[in-house]
Amino acid sequence: MMSKTFTIGLVQQACVADKAANIDRAVAGIREAAARGAQIVCLQELFGSPYFCKIEATERFELAEPVPGPTIEALQPVAQELGVVVIVPVFERRGPGVYHNSAAVLDADGSLLGVYRKMHIPDDPLYLEKYYFAPGDATGPTRGFRVFDTRFARIGVLICWDQWYPEGARITSLLGAEVLFYPTAIGWHPREKDAVGAAQVDAWRTVQRGHAIANGVYVAAPNRVGFEAEPGTDGIEFFGHSFISDPFGRIVAEAPADKPAVLVAECDRAMMEDVRRSWPFLRDRRIDAYEPILARYLGGA
């Protein structure tokens, strides 16, 4: 029988070129979160390296690894030792020429429960992910979205650009997720920061709070922090602000913009159910009327 509550943690860190150092920082964050009571800990997107998608460079595919592979094998003993669930984002080499932006879920005994592969892949200035990543396979009844039954809770995992799409949040919630984790790597183009930086952070936070409210679930988004240079560009200043929202949309924990942090928050199942009873959005869905959403565009040819 599940307990009335479970506790989640997020690790916000700066990344360097030394993969072993990034793993060490992640392990330190996991240990801190566990010491503060976290039972499920999520690391940030592609935490094993600087964000490499700022340019197209064939040699950067060498950063990829299989799942399971070295990163998973380094963190499995940590999950087992501490008795915590760990969400481990990785640059996955699935097969020859096939790569994904993925997140593996380790249960509290260190076992690999499975992998979520990012479904929505961006292609923006300095976020050239379509060059590196194939999207997750939209196969089976859940079309690539999935949940994981961990020792402490049923969790959903989506990744970064997925966080802007209500469809992914809805499907994952309908699969029974109690919390949606969004490991993230988002930041400012330095030349745009003064003009739109605050609005960008607010939009990012607001859309995810909306997922929490619309689905009656907790939402947790760990982001990286720090400036990462890239020759020939202005680089990216990752803006941190990792946060946890409750099902009412309230921010219950938030990290700063400019330094590493570990967040921990308790999730209350009774409160989640109470919100869903008061705001019965799932009950009142008109599933008989939603077929048009499957079209790419409805405004004409």
Description:
With 301 residues, the protein is an alpha/beta fold. It has one domain: Nitrilase/N-carbamoyl-D-aminoacid amidohydrolase (4-Layer Sandwich). Helix content is 25%, strand content 25%. It contains 6 helices and 15 strands. The strands form 3 sheets. Strands 5-4-3-2-1-15 form a 6-stranded mixed β-sheet. The chain has a 6-stranded mixed β-sheet with strand order 6-7-8-10-13-14, with helices on one face. It has a 3-stranded antiparallel β-sheet with strand order 9-12-11, with helices on one face. Strand 6 and strand 7 form a beta hairpin.
Strand order of the largest sheet: 5-4-3-2-1-15
Count the domains. Answer: 1
Overall residue-averaged pLDDT value: 97
CATH-defined topology: Nitrilase/N-carbamoyl-D-aminoacid amidohydrolase
Layout of helices and strands:
Blueprint: E1 5-12, H1 19-35, E2 40-42, H2 70-82, E3 85-95, E4 98-106, E5 112-117, H3 129-132, E6 147-149, E7 154-157, H4 166-174, E8 179-181, E9 187-188, H5 193-215, E10 218-221, E11 225-228, E12 236-239, E13 243-245, E14 251-254, E15 261-268, H6 269-278
Parallel strand pairs: 1-2, 2-3, 7-8, 8-10
Antiparallel strand pairs: 1-15, 3-4, 4-5, 6-7, 9-12, 10-13, 11-12, 13-14
